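Our consortium's second objective concerns turning raw sequence data into structural hypotheses that experimental partners can test. To show how far this objective has progressed, the report includes one record in full. It was chosen at random from the queue rather than selected for favorable results. The single chain below, 692 residues long, was entered without modification.
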Amino acid sequence: MGDARTHARRRRLVPWAVVGLWLAALVLVGPLAGKFGEVQQNRAVDYLPDSADSTQVARIQDELPGGESTDLVLVYHRDGGLSAADRQAAAAQVAEVEGAYDLTDIPRGVPSTDGSTLMYPVSSTQPGQDEEARNAFVDGVREIADGTGGLSVEVGGPGALGTDMGKVFETIDGTLLLATLGVVTVLLVLIYRSPFLWLVPLTVAGVAAGVAMAAGYGLHELFDVTVTGQSGGIMTVLVLGAGTDYALLLVSRYREELRRHERPYDAMSAALRGCGPAILASSGTVAAGLLCLLAADLNSSSGMGPVGMIGVLAALVAMTTLLPAVLVLLGRRVFWPLIPAFGSAPKARRSLFAAMGTSAARRPAAVLAGGGLLLGALALGTLNLTGDLKQEDSFTDRPESISAMRTLAEEYPERSSRPLTVMAPTDRADAVLAKARTTEGVADATVVRDGGGWAEIAVFATAAPETAGETRTIETLRDTLDGHGAHVGGLSAQQLDLAHSESRDRSVIVPLVLAAVFVILMVLLRSLVAPLLLLAAVVAVWGAALGIGGLVFEPLLGFSGTDPGLGLLSFVFLVALGVDYGIFLLHRMREESLNGAEPEAAALTALRTTGGVIASAGVVLAATFAVLTTLPLVPLVELGFVIAVGVLLDTFLVRTYLVTTASVLLRRRLWWPGGLSRNPEPVPRERQPEPV
């Protein structure tokens, strides 16, 4: 009697206590979540490792008198040639800028050869490192520089590009959150077919997102973890996408258990025992894969690891504590109008996934070979991926700074309009300047300022920014100045260092991710063969998704390059997230095998019972990452596209056909060397699984 009273009291108090703890946590961390956007760093140099040459240049610039300079270029252009009035207007506007701001030097106009363009380099240390001050300086110059009567005036240069990039990232968090919430809402309404149920997991996901943002802010403040606009956006997508996946699996199992248990508390306890290990292992693989990014050389990638992991863990904790508590308190009525009554049987209907599995099982070898050939053919599309994306091609909507950059490239083909920056010790400045001027590919070089033991030298290459010619010039400069204590930086050098670091990171992190995920799968599935099967499947999906990207990015979308980080980031996410669905499927398959089912029956039953949940989860996750394709930055569009396509391939081709047919062909060898590979005695259980 006492045990019954204790159990009844637990059923009443535990859900309320869990909800109360979450409300208290939200009150505590809410203010911190609002500061998450404030700590994001979006300059190219913030992405680079401290050891990079261009990073050293940026650090030394900060120490020079006045600190970091904000460099702009005012570009005056008229088709057919500038008139005398145009030149007078340009001179007057530049003089107004000079009077309004403390500039490092007197701006001097540089006319183009054909007389149609006049550029004025403008530089100021007045804003320093303060982002708001830099943006105010750029916006103020743009207000002064105004063209009329057919005179085009554009403000470009590194400072303007940084401001334009920053404004794009400022809008990402809010836009991404609202768009993702909208997409997930529509899908949950369609999946649950209930006017109320969809709101519960969506609200819990929103709570998890707030906690993740607060934790992300704490990571930056306590451990100096680099947080970028990209990692912040990815974290939002992970919380909502992965969290909704976990909710779909849990709610599906909870609905099933409500037919067997009279009280919602008991049904939820059974549901958590049934699907909890799969959810835990699923989140563990994602977290482990992301943590492997800590080994990255790039600050942006190494920072994305813990930031993304925080998002996944916040989703896991919320969906396994707060969601169950809220569902128990709401009772069966939350499923209205399709309320699962105690003792009832689910409505019998033909399962699409049962039919698909049966058709695949008739000729498993042919299905497996055909699917493998299809993935291989799609992977050939990677040969169509173009070279590294230039900064000027990174926007889907061209901002003013990019328009100015392109005008300068067309009108000043004899020299780059974007200087390389060389920092040299003051006592060696003259020798470094002389060597720079005589370096092949250099059009001109001049000392901009000095102080603090360093001299800043602006070097103008003959080749356009971010071309093969300029890259050769940067590398030649670094070789020539080696031994003189000098460093070569600037925007183009930063992009080159980014590409080199990305290449190094791929060779280190890819095997780390595979090893970490393999260990987790081996522990969960107690097998060596099953983990290898899942890893081979997700790697094939990654190659096919990248191949589809190669067939779409330039031919259909007109992108002029591929982000250097696309291969690594898409690999980490597709392997970690793709293995999730394999875990859901094989975990249920193992459960069926433990209860005496023959290998083929176990595979088909697992597909029938989990296929609907996996399909729903895959569609939701793909849709959340597809939201990235609506943003105005090409790197995020490419990343969102590849991951969304990969998740759909994994959900509807690999899990449904290839993993199932491979399991049928391998039979008990799938579980080698575990006990299941030796035809074990069935373990009794109280019930048989029902189709979802």
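The partners drew two points from this record. The CA atoms of residues 510 and 568 lie 7 Å apart. Residues 681-692 have pLDDT under 50 and may be disordered. Both points have been shared with the crystallography group to help prioritize constructs.
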